[in-house]
What we know:
The protein is of the alpha+beta class. Helices cover 26% and strands 22% of the residues.
Amino acid sequence: MADIEIHHSHADAVAENPTSHAASCTCGEVDEDLPEMDVQSIPHAIRHAAIFGAVNALRPRAALIISANHNPIPLLTQLEARYGDAYTASYLEKGPERWRIVIRNMA
């Protein structure tokens, strides 16, 4: 297991890892271009909340793919009700085994 370093401030963490920038995480990892979230791996009781947390974290023009074993129409309805056309959703795959949808922040 890697050593864990605890920094006293965000500035200290950025100074320790100069490849990161101030608005991002300082873990040293790079964001994927289009992350995919298999929502079946999230407990049902918190699934939609976790998805909306991920959607809220999208930077302007960024996107993510959600993957489910059913057509997530209720989720898409909630997405439209919350955000209107600030986010778009489009199918990459339409079942019958897997539904994959790209959600993009249009800001």
